[in-house]
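for the recovery benchmark. tokens below, seq after
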């Protein structure tokens, strides 16, 4: 009795499910997935069942089409015999040997089946995740949000505006951060250009543009508040990109800015036209 053979068969059967699960998820934690093993195994098993059912259905349709036209199935198509798989999982040695003989006869077909399924399990969920993000099907309040929302990417929804409808997407995301500089709190404000996530899922740094700053003591109504024209109480920070480390921030404020559409200009009146007789008289213009 070969104990390793059933384990190998189970591994190959569930491998597409684990690949699909990893490709459909948008997880900010890359170093280690702390999801419970039962949850991971269940999700992978569900994905594996769906993928195998889809692939076997496609193979059945192709076989039915070959039967309809009276043609022999090409050598690359796998046989639809679930009994062989069950015999491979059996604990009886002679039964496993008979199943292995069948597998050896159709090794090319089985390899093509597994290879194509693994490729699809990698590319299919990737395209599905792109479609979910493109049409914002995962935003809060959407119809299918409870099933399509990426629960392990909180910073993605906070810093990308993905929770807004397509016609309400903010034009800018302003960030206000309180930073301790030499024992004194300073307030930094700027437009978010990009952000990076650490492998453990924590926010690493923010890349800001058009940054201004001021000491927190120069708040409204304080004695240090300045009435300077232009920037007011803030001081501009020279540079194209300002990198702010999240570990050095005390508080973080996010503001979504949506620019209002310019209203259509009111139609102008036609230019005045003077009568020929009054061309040299200081009279009021007559509108034509």
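predicted aa per position
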């Amino acid at each position: 009795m070969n104990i390793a053979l059933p384990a190998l068969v189970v591994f190959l059967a569930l491998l597409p499910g684990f690949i699909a699960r990893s490709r459909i998820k948008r997880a900010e934690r890359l170093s280690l997935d702390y999801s419970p093993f039962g949850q991971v195994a269940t999700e992978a098993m569900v994905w594996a069942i769906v993928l195998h059912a889809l692939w076997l259905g496609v193979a059945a349709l192709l076989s039915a089409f070959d039967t309809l036209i009276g043609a022999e199935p090409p050598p690359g198509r796998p046989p639809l015999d679930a009994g062989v798989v069950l015999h491979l999982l059996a604990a009886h040695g002679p039964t496993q040997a008979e199943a292995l003989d069948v597998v050896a006869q159709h090794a090319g077909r089985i390899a093509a089946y597994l290879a194509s399924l693994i490729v699809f399990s990698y590319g299919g969920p990737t395209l599905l995740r792109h479609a979910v993000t493109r049409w914002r099907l995962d935003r809060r309040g959407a119809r299918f949000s409870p099933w399509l929302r990426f629960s392990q990417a909180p910073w993605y929804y906070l810093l990308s505006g993905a929770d807004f409808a397509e016609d309400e997407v903010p034009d800018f995301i302003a960030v206000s951060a309180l930073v301790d500089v030499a024992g004194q709190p300073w307030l930094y404000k700027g437009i978010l250009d990009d952000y990076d996530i650490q492998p453990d899922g924590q926010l690493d740094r923010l890349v800001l543009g058009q940054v201004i700053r001021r000491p927190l003591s120069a708040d409204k109504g304080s004695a240090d508040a300045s009435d300077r024209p232009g920037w007011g109480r803030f001081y501009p920070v020279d540079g194209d990109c300002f990198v702010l480390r999240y570990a050095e921030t005390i508080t973080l404020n996010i503001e979504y800015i949506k620019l209002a559409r310019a209203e259509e200009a009111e139609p102008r009146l036609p230019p005045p036209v003077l009568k020929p007789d009054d061309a040299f008289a200081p009279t009021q213009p007559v509108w034509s």
